[in-house]
Design brief:
This protein is an alpha/beta fold. It contains 13 helices and 8 strands.
Length: 302
């Protein structure tokens, strides 16, 4: 099961971290933009360089579909190649596409993103629950059939997420808590040998108190934790997303790793220097989070 493969890689690398692959053309170093390559070729070169730079440090990468879609069909083709390349490098792929729809349309999305015979074949897919539980069932069915996983949006890292997540249902329960209970329930059908479910939740690093509350509801579900680094979340903020064993969460950083070169004095613009900066930022993230977890959970399993 994919959740067991993820946990094994976390243990091997002592790293519950994931690096986002978010290609923003204006932010890419000139060494990728001024080479005579087409934009899709340049994007693929950049993405594979990033993957090569972090492959020994993190267990997973998280390509964000929107940043590939802006380049049209050729960009989507690059996304598919990035997923394949990450798999070749032994990495788990979290496809951050936040898909959601109903009926056959949801089935089509699920096949495209998760099926082994589909065009993308990612390991995990982020999905939105806000069309109701019937909209998620095709994704759940496909994930179970294919041995894949999901991360359901429960408490996202953006400030206005409170408008929905903190709203109260007719039964007097906060939306986020109801969603957490739902994720916990459906996740019971997809628990691996390590005791964690392949159905998890997106819980932002910018809300550590809420993450602590949600962890009490979703004890055996993995959290995908955005908001680390550029969005303001730090190592201390993400600790509450984990369990006593030091597992249970995958912390993401995108801009703080991919585009840190703009803050480096004397950056000369070479691919070698850029890759070294990306690797150093990924290492710094791994060390900071691992150290923080050791302080909070001295009996963690890795």
């Amino acid at each position: 099961m994919v959740i067991d493969a993820l946990i094994q890689k976390i243990k091997e690398k002592k790293s519950p971290c994931v690096v986002g692959i978010d290609p923003e053309w204006s932010k890419l170093p000139d060494c990728y933009k001024n080479t005579g390559l087409t934009k899709p070729e340049a994007l693929l070169q950049w993405a594979t360089d990033v993957i090569d730079s972090v492959a020994e440090i993190v267990p997973a990468v998280k390509p964000q579909m929107a940043f590939f879609e802006v380049f049209g069909a050729e960009g989507i083709a690059v996304h598919e190649k990035v997923v394949r390349y990450a798999h070749e490098k032994g990495l788990i792929v979290v496809d951050d596409s936040k898909r959601n729809d109903i009926g056959n349309t949801a089935k089509a999305y699920a096949f495209a993103h998760l099926a082994k015979d589909g065009p993308i074949n990612s390991d995990f897919l982020t999905v939105s629950p806000f069309l109701g539980t019937d909209s998620l069932q095709p994704f759940i069915d496909t994930a179970k059939a294919e041995g894949k996983g999901l991360f359901v949006l429960v408490k996202t890292s953006n400030p206005s997420s409170v408008e929905i997540s903190e709203a109260v249902t007719a039964s007097g329960e906060k939306v986020r808590d109801w969603l957490a209970g739902y994720v916990n329930t459906i996740g019971e059908e997809c628990v691996g040998v390590e005791g964690y479910s392949a159905i998890g939740a997106v819980v932002g690093a910018t809300y550590p108190g809420e993450a602590e509350d949600l962890r009490k509801i979703m004890k055996n579900n993995f959290f995908l934790v955005p908001g680390y680094g550029a969005q303001g979340g730090g190592a201390a903020d993400v600790a509450s997303s984990f369990n006593e064993d030091g597992l249970g969460a995958l912390v993401n950083s995108s801009r703080g790793i991919l585009y840190h070169h703009v803050n480096v004095p004397g950056f000369e613009g070479s691919r070698e220097q850029y890759c070294a900066i990306v690797k150093a930022q990924a290492e710094a993230m791994q060390k900071a989070i691992y150290s923080e977890l050791k302080k909070h959970y001295p009996e963690m399993v890795y």
